[in-house]
Amino acid sequence: MLAIDCHQLIRFGILLIATVEVLGLGTSRVQAAEAEANSQVSLAAWSERLAQWDAAHDLEWRRLLFYRSRWLRSASSVVDDPRFFLSESGQINPATEMRATLRAFFESTEAVGDESAYCRFPARVAFLNRRYPDLASAFPIPVQKCPKWDEFRNGLPAKRISLVFSSYFPNNAGSLFGHTLLRFHLQATGKERPEQALLDIGVNYAANVDTGNPLLYMFRGLTGGFQGSFSVMPYYMKIQEYNNAESRDLWEYELDLDTAEVQQILASLWEIGKINLRYWYLDENCALLILQLLETARTDVYLTDSLHAWVIPSDAARRVSQYGPTGFVKAVRFRPSNLLKYESRFNALSAGEATVLSQLIGISEGSNLEPTIQESLQRGEIAELSSQARVLDAAIEWVDFQTKAAGSEPGEKHLKLRNALLAKR
Q1: Number of C-alpha atoms within 13 angstroms, CB side, residue 412?
Q2: Shortest CA distance to 274 belongs to which of 244, 232, 243?
Q3: Which residues pair with 182 in a beta bridge?
Q4: Whole-number Cα distances in Å, 341 to 127, 195, 239, 249, 310
Q5: Pick from 391, 288, 230, 410: which is nearest to 338 by CA?
Q6: Angle at 77 between CA 290 and CA 279, to 5 degrees
Q7: Beta strand pairing status for 277-279 and 160-166?
Q8: pLDDT higher for 31 or 165?
Q9: Minimum mean pLDDT among 13-27, 46-60, 79-93, 127-141: which range?
Q10: 182 φ, ψ (degrees, to nearest 5)
Q11: CA atoms within 13 A on the CB side of 285
Q12: How far apart are CA 236 and CA 243, in angstroms?
């Protein structure tokens, strides 16, 4: 009897579990149907409001899509990668792209998480919520969990942004007119120490060159034959590359952007960061894309409206500077190259001091350095300590230039000489 009761109890438990599962499945279906109905209602509400919206002439929306006006041609996006658009005609029709964006936000159930439109296009989400707060409150865009987007923005907690212009580099045809990039400051507004740059982040847009043939390099560069892409790296790497290795001077233009505007630029960078674009050396290059990225944050600033024919990096510096120190640019900082620092030291020397300098930098590293340095200073008859200091400073700058040293890390070639000069200084 006890065994029978146990079997009956087991059968009853199985039946109970099956019943609960069926009921749960029905509940899930009801919830899914309700969610779908709510999405359709929300989509209809947004679509009705935006039906009267002139997307083709909405400046902020066009900037989010990286549209550009051209001579003798209709405005279109400089982005030609279909992954950036949700409509087949999105590159040339901002209205169809908005309709496709709304459908992707409210109707799409296949892509979730990082692959969803919500996670791929956070700048568009922010735009809609900001432009139509009443709709966003009554019919909110369904929120998705976006681990990769969260990791990106949390790993780049920028407080300020500077546009950086690098002087030309004759050994690289792609840098004959200089280069433009962004510096993301991780420190809030305040007096900045020079070494702070070592902790900041650089955002660069450049061509992905895959040939060493100079003729092919020139042809493809002028005809859009290279792919361009954005990259993020520690800012000190760009200082080492430009300031030190290539002896290029840097001008940093700190921009007048609030926290929300900085976040808007980050969101647009996320949207376009993994997209391939055709890189044109005289047109759709680092200068234009960096300026367009900045324009996504400020509709009252016009940086690219008059750049129809060609664009070079110096145009970017000129355009952000045109608003003056009380406008878009808050401050300008100059970061001289090692070559310029040496030349400045050298030009301040007297003829006698220059002679002693030539003796110092000609010292063989195999010799007894400190006594040899002292002998050179005495033989030059520059007894004043200030005069000796100027010579030693110039010699140190020469070593840094020759070895392309990075800050406090001198190259191995002249390490002993540099240390001896510092000890004497």
Answers
A1: 0
A2: 232
A3: 163, 203
A4: 46, 17, 14, 10, 33
A5: 410
A6: 55
A7: unpaired
A8: 165
A9: 13-27
A10: -120, 145
A11: 25
A12: 10
**Using H for helix, E for strand and C for coil, what is the string for the chain?**
CHHHHHHHHHHHHHHHHHHHHHHHHHHHHHHHHHHHHHHHHHHHHHHHHHCCCCHHHCHHHHHHCCEEEECCEEEEECCCCHHHCCCCCCCCCHHHHHHHHHHHHHCCCCCCHHHCHHHHCHHHHHHHHHHCHHHHHHCCCCCCCCHHHHHHHHCCCCCEEEEEEECCCCCCHHHCCCEEEEEEECCCCCCCCHHHHHHCEEEEEEEECCCCCHHHHHHHHHCCCEEEEEEEEEHHHHHHHHHHHCCCCEEEEEECCCHHHHHHHHHHHHHHHCCCEEECCCCCCHHHHHHHHHHCCCCCCCCCCCCCCCCCHHHHHHHHHCCCCCCCEEEEEEECCHHHHHHHHHHCCCHHHHHHHHHHHCCCCCCCHHHHHHHHHHHCCCCCHHHHHHHHHHHHHHHHHHHCCECCECCHHHHHHHHHHHHHC
**Cβ atoms 314, 290 nearer than 8 A:** no
pLDDT band at 178 (very low <50, low <70, confident <90, very high): confident
Structure tokens at 274: 């993994």
What pLDDT score was predicted for residue 22? 44
Q: Which two tokens stand for residue 145?
A: 């969990």
Question: What pLDDT is stored for residue 170 in this prediction?
Answer: 46
- Highest averaged pLDDT of the listed ranges 300-304, 366-370, 379-383: 300-304
Summarize pLDDT for 209-233 with one digit per residue, the tens: 888 788 888 889 888 889 999 999 9
- Mean pLDDT in residue range 252-279: 94
Average pLDDT over residues 306-319: 83
pTM of the model as a whole: 0.80
| Confidence class for position 6, pLDDT limits 50, 70, 90 | very low
Would you say residue 379 has pLDDT above 90?
A: no
User: What is the distance of C-alpha 138 from the center of its chain?
Assistant: 35
Q: Check residues 15 and 126 and name the one with the higher pLDDT.
A: 126
Q: Which amino acid is at 365?
A: E
Tell me how far apart the alpha carbons of residues 164 and 316 are, in angstroms, rounded to a whole number: 9
Q: CA–CA separation, 227 vs 221, rounded Å?
A: 10
Length of the chain: 425
* Rounded Cα distance, 196 and 48, in Å: 50
Report residue 172 as tokens.
Answer: 């690289």
